[in-house]
Amino acid sequence: MKEKCFVDSSVVYSVVVNGKTDLLRKLSYFVLYTSVNVLEEVSFKIVVDSVLEDQDGDAGFYRVKDMFERGVAESTIERRLHVLNFIASRVNVLSPKLEDFELAKRLIIKQTPVE
């Protein structure tokens, strides 16, 4: 039986934006899991980074939002989101649960030991 592996946002982002498909090949020996939160985070980074790449510069959040709404980098964003959807269709996507959030908060403030 294959071992389980959680794929975090840095891996998904590297595959989608930087084309690091070798990461997926290496992970193909595992049963892959990710979360809705990871997919949302990567989606957001895709939009922001695609707009910034298109503009060759630095911009604040509201400027990026305005450029996105005007269609800046639309084809790049669409292509990258398509790749993200493909990846999401090939892994087990975990739904967020409130108890996971509560446990994470306790771990952060060190009230509960990591088991």
Describe it.
With 115 residues, the protein is mainly α. The chain has a single domain (4-108), classed as Rossmann fold (3-Layer(aba) Sandwich), CATH 3.40.50. 64% of the residues lie in helices and 10% in strands. The chain has six helices and three strands; from the N terminus they run βααβαααβα. It has helices spanning 9-18, 21-27, 36-55, 61-69, 74-90, 98-108; strands at 4-6, 31-35, 92-94. The protein has a three-stranded parallel sheet. Helix 1 (9-18) crosses helix 2 (21-27) and helix 3 packs antiparallel against helix 5 (74-90). The longest helix is centred in the middle third of the chain and has 20 residues, at 36-55. The radius of gyration is 17 Å and the shape is globular.
| Distance from first to last alpha carbon | 23 Å
Total beta-strand segments: 3
Helix share of residues? 55-70%
Enumerate the spans where pLDDT stays under 50 for 5 or more consecutive residues: none
Strand content: 5-15%
Number of helices: 6
* Form type: globular
Question: Which radius of gyration do the C-alpha atoms yield?
Answer: 17 Å
Which structural category fits the helices and strands? mainly alpha
CATH topology: Rossmann fold
Strand count, sense and barrel status of the largest sheet are:
3 strands, parallel
Summarize model confidence as the mean pLDDT. Answer: 90
Domain count: 1
Q: Multimeric state of these chains? A: single chain
CATH class: Alpha Beta
CATH architecture: 3-Layer(aba) Sandwich
